[in-house]
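re: that chain from earlier
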Amino acid sequence: MTIAAILAKEIKTDIRNPYSLAASSLFLISSLFVCYITIKRINAASTWIALFWIILLFTSFNAVAKSFMNESRERMLYFYTIMSPSQFIISKMIYNAFIMIALSMIAVIIYTALFDMDIADPTLFWYGVLFGSCGLAFVLSMLSTIASKAGSNLTLLAILGLPILLPLILVTTTLTKNAIDGIDWAIQWKYAFVLMGLNVVCFALSLILFPYLWRE
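^ sequence. v structure.
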């Protein structure tokens, strides 16, 4: 079984049982709407970015937590016999990254419509949103494996996830805020490089660590 086959299986599963993705989308839209009716207007770019990433962070926990928790022990044993651990975790991370990118795009569209904010450098802003979303997906995909081994404990996922995600969130919020302020690329390139590096490190560590959990 290849990575493409696992991706196809994930898509078919979500098509047949769309409640999980619908719940994540509803949580995202509801959070944005509650913020709008409470705050009405955001003038400071720092507040705008902070609120956006807080909403997206908790949405990612809802969207990616199901990654391994919906897999039964029998199904995992079947996967264990027909494919390598690297193929399995790569397919999971790719699929979760697509989900997070889609949710992020929805969030940006709705958020900018509700809270108008002039973005001086849209290219850099979208770079931060896309790689920040992928980083969230990569980290939470791996942590979802650990949580599933502990009886699908969502509390454990949150406890493990927030400290590990802190560097990613700090870099991403700084990069996207600077994109709104229009700070020159001569200053921004280091944040862009670090953000991409964090994505690569998270991806590589998942490939290294997952085989040990795969054998459990």
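DSSP finds nine helices and no strands in the chain.
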